[in-house]
Fold these 2 entries.
Entry 1:
Amino acid sequence: MNSFDIMAISITAAYFIAIAIISIFGARRTKTISDFISASGQLGFWTYVLLMIGSVTSGMTIIGVAGLGFQSGWANLWERVIGPPFAISFCTLLIGYKMWSLRKKFQILTMQDYLAVRYEDPKWMRVLAGLISAVTCFAYLIGQYTAIGVVSEVVLGVPYSMASFIALIVVLGYVVSGGMFSTAWTTLLQALIMIVIAIVMAPMIIGWVGGWIALNELASQVPILQKMVRGVSEAYAFAQFLDKPFGPAEMPLVGWAYNLTLFGLTVPLGLMVAPHIVNNVLCFKDPKYTKWGPILMYSLSVPIIMATSLIGLAARVAWAQGRLSISSLKLEGGVVVAWNDMAFPTIAKAALPYGIFILLLPCVLAAVMSTTDRLLVTAASNISYDIVKKVIRPNLSDNALKWISRIVIIIIGVTSWWLSLTPQPMLAWFIWAALSIMVSCFFWPIIGGLYWRRMNKHAARWGMLAGFITTLISFWIWGRNIIIPGVVALYAVVPGFIASTAVTLILSFITKPHSEGLLKETLTGRFIRAD
């Protein structure tokens, strides 16, 4: 083992030790089930802001967004400008302020608590929403282990399965012991690591390919370069659109219509109501955070996502020039990780000094763990608190509930890790599929419930169910792309969201709304601030 290997392992070990120390304090602070699930609504301003950034800036951001930048360049600008930053900012602005008041009034710990109160449906709405929430969190988790496994193999040479398993054990350790406090406090550190490292690495990598101006000039030359150097078609992998904001409507991934349905609908709205994001608004201490918090979230998230996107584009330029070889990563058992997702670690290894390159692993660890821990807490709460405690065994003690939550966390964590041992062809597609279910199931029950007085339990129940079933059928029939040849290409979320919207609107108008008293109590109406 050379000194560089020792340095890489030492930095990674230091990261794990820091997480362990923070987790111990989180475990000591966790006394009640409210502490475990929602930190008893006591998170401070910066802890909450960075929790939101960390929850949305996942392995998908570090690995998947760079892979997207490699494949389509500027043609998916919407992802960087509108997507995740929009989601967490507007989640805080549109949902956070009202939920802060409702949380105190109705003792709300999870979003299912709110749905049960708002729709006067303490049983079926809670079970339906809780199960769908747990399923989406589970699907989202699989992609996180994929990211850490890929980068660990590139940086340390540690086998994919072993590296992802180590990350699993660490996350399970601090989530099981400290719940939401450990999750929030470790994410505070992890988000800071991501912000600093991503912004430091991007200029160095872009400088390696010639600088900012050269990067865009070379992006326009990729079609010719890849034909001359790589011997592939000028149109290969959307090369002709790398320097454009979008492509023709009939093209998947880069077309303006596809961009609109994926990056204008699925990503921002799906993340805004995603269980692991929306439940964060039940954790902050002061409603004043909803004033400046969204601005800071947006301002800090955009540079991270832009940095990883530009790193992916830089990798594409270097590959077309013949300066970089980006190959598929073959794992144990013959499983292959697509080369798109290898863009960031491969160009980082070539372009960065080793002392900086080895920081990539803690960066990805931070990205993965800051999302994984929140997903685990949310999924466990869906099962143990919303279903077991609130529906099946109302008299269950807090101590018993905490142990059930811990068991559920372990089961979900280990099962999702096991499924991640067979990675998806491109990490981003798997995450986007999970977001499709989220937007089709939760957008109307949550946003409609807060702002539309005609929204009732029938519309919420059946709209959620219609969105869930139709989305699954849509992906089963079309995969991810719905293409009308020569006319338009749309992302497969469209049928599910249309079904959810249609069922919701029809039932809202043909059935009676809830009582005026309930609507007033739950702050339902076309306003953000009732005062």
Entry 2:
Amino acid sequence: MIQRQTQDFVFWREKYRVDEADHEFLYEFLADAGTPQTLETLTYQIIERRCAQEDARIRKELSRGLIYDPQESYKVGDELVFSAYGFRLAKVVDVRPGENPEHGEFDVMRVRFADNGKERQFAARLQTPHKLNRSGDDDLFATADLLSVDELFEEVGADVAATIQQHLQEQTDYFINAGTRWLTTDQMVPVNVGHLNIAEAAIDVNERPMTTTALLELVELDDVASPEVLAFSLETALSQDDRFVEVGLGGETAWFLTRLMPPAAMEIPPLLRCEPESYDRSLLDVELLQAEWELNDEWTEGGLSEGATSALKSASVHVIFPHWVSGTLPLSPSVRMLIPDSTGKASLITLVDGRWGKRFDVWVVHEGRYIAGLSEWYKSHKLPVGARVILERSSNENEIVIDFKPLRSRRDWIRMVRVEDERLTFVMSRQQMGCEYDDHLAIGLTDVDSVLALGERVREQDKTVPELVEQIMPELVKLSPQGTAHVKTLYSAVNLLRRTPPAPIFAALTQLPTATDTGSGYWNL
């Protein structure tokens, strides 16, 4: 069977480039389609086209002459096709006896290639085995062992797509995109400054994001084009204007004004930026892994799979300091499954206060893995660090009920943090607590600004997680008569200064020379 180049993963991943013929094909395909096409669709079409082209070329070349087979005999004047040389055509110009006892009697023929006139020598009438020998009427076009276009796309589609995307982005005179969809520049409907000014005014008056469909009804573009092209043209113009930002709204693409976006929805606050730090995960035993799972941190490796959480009707998370002070809620794996899929910089959803029934808008920042806009809600209900927040699906896909479990107001012993000599110290103090919370995570604050200032210096000095664990753990064990501290408490305390998931903190703890596991998540020094 013929070895096709298109069946070679290395070709697609390392050697494939968009040539002039591919360029023209992409342009014509988009022009004929008449609607914007995704990069994935274009990639599939290129792979399918290349496979069909190669098959047609091979058939054409093989029809021009005999297929070279070392077992066969040939004479001067015969025209042969050499499959090992890209099915190039050559003519036999000389035949002589071969001289090699290992092969017995055979011929050596000299051939001249038709494309460049160069000559080479090949064996003929060869009796010993050779990789180019054919067995009887072998079908050169047997497809039983060939990968289909679908299989090739699954294996190399991402690599080919990256190559095609780079080409399209470089050819701005011919192609234009809005997100992952592409169109030719000739198909675009003109969108002028006046159209964009109308869109800005409409969003400003609405005070909420507006979908592309809603904006199209107001800006009145040339309606000769299809609705898909009209929407694409407007979205492209909006994306190129700094006044607008693409957001999600109920699963649809929508647009909002940059100047109206809350800062936390446009840029991840420093307190919530999780900088990866290498650690040895094998240091975490079953107990530490269980604690990691219970904490449900949004930056934990892996987390719950979509299949396991898609049926969830509710989820709960505990609010640690970085989220509490930023007015955000962690987009943990379980919470993520309650949020509608969306595109854009952020997506707008509505939360319904389970206590008072009040509705308020918040922004889901998928890249930062948090929900922004809960500062007032935290303050109005006086929720502390460590509070357990519950989210539940509602009948409206774009609305989620947010609640907490109230407790009869009582004074509990809580760890209070303060900054002394550029370090965190802790004392136990009775504080009024009116909601369900995790005792291990709860931390009281009397001077938030000093903690924030210390955290900023820690980040500027780029202190490592092991350094923070080494500083903080001795302060925590002082609070207990048994001289122990829980790993969850250490996690909450480290996150006062640096946003870090549990695993690197736990791994650093196991590396402290004096640290000892006393069981049930407690450690001493």
